[in-house]
Amino acid sequence: MNRGPLFRLYNHRRPLPARLLRSRPVYNFSATFNMLPESAIPRAVLVFAVLCISCLLLYRAADSLRFLSFPSGSSVSFPHIFPSLVFDNDSVPVRNEQKLENVLEDAAMEDKTVILTTLNEAWAAPNSIVDLFLASFRIGVHTRRLLNHLVIIALDQKAYTRCMELHIHCFALVTEGIDFRKEAYFMTPAYVKMMWRRIDFLRSVLELGYNFVFTDADVMWFRDPFPRFYSDADFQIACDHFTGSSVNIENKPNGGFNFVRSNNRSIEFYKFWYSSRETYPGYHDQDVLNFIKFDSFVEDLGLKMRFLDTAYFGGLCEPSKDLSLVCTMHANCCFGLDSKLHDLRVMLQDWMHFLSLPPSMKRSLIVSWRVPQNCSLDSLRRYDSPKNSSVHQGLQK
């Protein structure tokens, strides 16, 4: 899933060796100067020097700018993409970010569906969340090909640079005045702002006409989930707790994994969801969704909402019980990056062990997980804000 000058481009032009300087032809300007009146010579020298210096500066600027290729018709200016981005000798070159439409078009399936995740510096570090996330696609069942349709939304410069090292579809999303680089602990102001920024961004994707599967980067993809999605739903979402019915709005949804189809109903729903942050100040997007799912406005929209079964779309809050069925597993109900990393690694080990079993044993045994271990709902509750305690009491029930 982290946004003054933007670049300091250094022109490493070495001075020409003395032997090359000596081999250059020597031009005699004395004849030219002799044709001028004596009083004009200093002025001519000055004009000539100014012209030479101007030409040299223009050449150097043009030579530097050739490394930056702006998309045609783009109104994007670099200072608004990465305000603190600086080029130095050791940095990985960052190419100009394409417009969102171009990135989505490159990654989209035939029906204009894309897979989206967000990434900041904390989760982009080597051997961190993003590495496990991408690894799950590579070892999952029929999931490797889905990487062609995954767009990583970088929230800061280091996340974008790391994305460019690992993946083909990257987009830089910046929120001016907010630093999303560090780990955003649950229910801190940075966490809440990040969640609402995500909702607003997803609305813009829908308005561009693209369906999307949004997935947190701490969701492991073990099987292609598309066969398990409902064909008639506008908005379908994974759950922290699943009641057993996909249409029961008493389900406890989790915003870290959902599939949304672009149409007027879903666009208006996302606008309503985002605007509801003012109705419920201080709450994050998932809590607000738990409030507005009962609102008559959603029913009047005609939005077809479905909740995904944790048997297929599980998480540490409510793990999938059978590895023969699981599509995704989410490291939810977990506080702290180290705890997440520990349980995600155990999760991947469990999956690899399952894949190594003979087919007969996969059919005859119900193989489940060794997680949660370091993650738990109790660890989350300690850091929850008082105003949200009722929501998480509901989750516990």
From TrEMBL:
Keywords: Cell wall biogenesis/degradation, Glycosyltransferase, Golgi apparatus, Membrane, Signal-anchor, Transferase, Transmembrane, Transmembrane helix. It is a single-pass type II membrane protein. InterPro entries: At1g28695/At4g15970-like, Nucl-diP-sugar_transferase, Nucleotide-diphossugar_trans. Its EC number is 2.4.2.-. GO terms for cellular component: Golgi membrane. It is found in: Golgi apparatus membrane. The keyword Transcription does not apply. GO terms for biological process: cell wall organization. The chain crosses the membrane at residues 40-59. GO terms for molecular function: glycosyltransferase activity. Residues 146-344 form the Nucleotide-diphospho-sugar transferase domain. It holds the Pfam family Nucleotid_trans. Belongs to the glycosyltransferase 77 family. This is Glycosyltransferase.
